[in-house]
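Long-time lurker. I teach an intro course on protein structure, and each term I like to show students one example going from raw sequence to a predicted 3D structure in token notation. This year I'd like something fresh instead of my usual example. Would anyone be willing to generate the tokens for the chain below so I can use it in lecture? Attribution to the forum is fine with me.
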Amino acid sequence: MLKSFSSLFLILITTTLDSQVTITSTDMPQTSHSYFSQNVLDFITIDLSLTGPNSTWDYSSLVGVDLDTLYAAPVSSTPLAYQFYFNNVFLYPDYVANYAVPTDDIGATGVSLSDRFEYFKSDANGHKIVGFGANVQGIPTSVRYAVIDKIYHFPMAYGDTGTSYGEYLLSIPTFGAYGQWITRTQNVDGWGTLLTPSGSYDCLRVKTVLELTDTVYADFAGFGSSFNRPTDTIFDWITNGEGIPVLTATSGDLGITSAKFKVGEINVINEQSHQPVKLFPNPANQILYIETDRDGFLNVYDLSGNIILEKRYTAFEKIDVSQLACGVYQLSLTDLSGEKVSRKITVIR
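-- Reply from a regular --
Happy to contribute to a lecture. Here you go:
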């Protein structure tokens, strides 16, 4: 009888331990993959107070609306001037990134940051933002974090807690300087089973309190100031092998402000031709990026053959498709030697 009880106890313990996942760098975004999430319409139905060991989070009835895309671009495909810190293993090994993510332009009075990429590094120690690249007032600029911002530590398991810091300072020609201090206070406060419209997952829940302080110095005024942004609390449900959280919810002072769940991913393959062309993300809902090895002219046609868009393109180009109706279009690229390449593109919402 004692032997049987001991065997049952060992089985129960083993089953419980096996249910708890451990997160490492292999569970972060992989280079040349596009990851798709749907923003949640009814996020108020998510109960953030539900957590702890062996939890069941049943959000299988969430309603998704527009699509959110994360493309993990190869660092070598980003503008060469941006790669100074992030692709230099000899001078800056701590800043060598695994991938880069295209991000939105920033425009304000006296300040212009365009063609932005954030650079990410995943290793045995954690998942980090090491810096960014941008055209700052039209000048290609590479900016490393003076203190690297660690998003997650590895290996990550239930019960882990900690605080990390990050900071950077950007000199802006004709304006002054802008910087940011970042504090992340983290608690892996739950493990269990998560259900979303995309499926069922064994997850950890990671709660991150994110505090940002902006600092600005204006040359024309001769002084600077700092101010705190509203504090956000980010809840990520993370599992093995998915690349991004399978569910994320962000909460502020008045409750949940946004949420999204993962719906899929694709591996972007560099198609072989005389003019190699890579499109990402495709389908696209906001920005379509075109990577090739030459310059030329592009046209976008609808299925009736009408020209929707025409412009000059460079080896790394982006097209705003946010105003196009959902559907399939024909993209035609003609390089400066007259060689043509055509690709189908899809616009979604």
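Some talking points for your students: The helical segments are 2-19, 83-86. The radius of gyration is 23 Å.
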